[in-house]
């Protein structure tokens, strides 16, 4: 039975960022779900993705982009139907590590100065802080190898991430028991490629490097779908 492919987007993106990848995977006969990552906090986001996994009969391959890598790392820890984890320009945290901690472990990220904060209401009547990338800086920062008109649309439709989610440590590391695959992006301005290599090596991931921006699922969907298919057929 072919596994269902579950795609989890990261910060400053939405599920439509997987459209090119979905098209290629469906052409190979895979069932695909592009889950809507809430981007409100790591434990909360992982619990939501876990609930999506619970709706799937049979095996699945879980794929995360960027902060979505942190989410799948936690979400898959208690799920017996996940046969592989695929990280696309993504965080691969160990227990107790946060996305921001891993970003700062190596020099090279220029994300911080391009973001703007905004307040949003919390259920307890307090407020939280979420981050956007400034629209005029989004194409160069996030999607430098994406056609300009598409990058501008991505900037307008980006979903903000709760700062607390980027600061929250991972409670589990599913890659310790589930085979990992990683696509590393050498022209990435969000997560330095040195950080990506460190995380992939530590997870003993099957690794492929491509010359691409952080938005590799949009700019080179074939490279992404090829690695996912490899993981699905292991």
TrEMBL record:
Pfam families: Abhydrolase_6 (PF12697). Coiled coil: none annotated. Keywords: Hydrolase. One of its GO terms (molecular function) is hydrolase activity. InterPro entries: AB_hydrolase_1, Sec-Metab_Biosynth_Hydrolase. It comes from the Bacteria. This is Alpha/beta hydrolase. Residues 5-224 form the AB hydrolase-1 domain.
């Amino acid at each position: 039975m072919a596994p269902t492919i579950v795609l989890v987007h990261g910060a400053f993106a939405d599920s439509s960022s997987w459209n090119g990848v979905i098209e290629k995977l469906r052409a190979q006969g895979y069932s695909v779900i592009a889950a809507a990552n809430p981007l409100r906090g790591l434990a909360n986001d992982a619990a939501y993705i876990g609930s999506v996994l619970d709706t799937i009969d049979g095996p699945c391959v879980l794929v995360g982009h960027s902060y979505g890598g942190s989410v799948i790392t936690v979400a898959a820890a208690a799920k017996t139907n996940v046969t592989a984890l695929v990280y696309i320009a993504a965080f691969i945290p160990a227990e107790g590590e946060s996305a921001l901690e891993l970003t700062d472990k190596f020099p090279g990220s220029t994300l911080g100065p391009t973001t703007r904060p905004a307040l949003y209401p919390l259920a307890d009547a307090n407020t939280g802080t979420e981050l956007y990338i400034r629209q005029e800086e989004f194409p160069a920062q996030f999607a430098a190898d994406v056609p300009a008109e598409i990058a501008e649309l991505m900037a307008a439709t980006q979903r903000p991430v709760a700062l607390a989610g980027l600061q929250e440590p991972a409670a589990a590391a599913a890659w310790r028991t589930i085979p990992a695959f990683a696509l590393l992006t050498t022209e990435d301005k969000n997560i330095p490629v040195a950080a990506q290599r460190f995380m992939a090596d530590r997870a003993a991931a099957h690794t492929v490097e491509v010359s691409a921006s952080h938005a590799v699922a949009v700019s080179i969907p074939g490279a992404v779908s090829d690695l996912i298919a490899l993981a699905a057929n292991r």
